[in-house]
Amino acid sequence: MPARTHIRTHRPATDTVEVRLPWWAVALPAVAFAALLLLIVEPGTAHAAEAEPAVGRLLGHILGLLPA
């Protein structure tokens, strides 16, 4: 018994490329961008630490280990 072959219909060639994305592929990056933008614009009640910054302490330790 011969197997039926599937005949594909081809669309005519055009110069444009059609891209179809699911809704969440656009919505999730947009929501993430909006959340990060809100954190930058209004950081809320974040306060600076009273102690010296960790980067400064790290650089101080590294400079202390180097021979003078």
Description:
This protein is mainly alpha-helical. 46% of the residues lie in helices and 0% in strands. The protein has two helices and no strands. The model has no long low-confidence stretch (mean pLDDT 78).
List the defining traits of the structure above.
68 residues; single chain; mainly alpha; 2 helices
Please outline what is shown here.
The chain is mostly helical.
Number of helices: 2
Please tell me the overall pLDDT.
Answer: 78
Unreliable sequence segments: none
**What summary fits the major beta sheet?**
none
Helix and strand layout, with pairings?
Layout: H1 23-41, H2 54-65
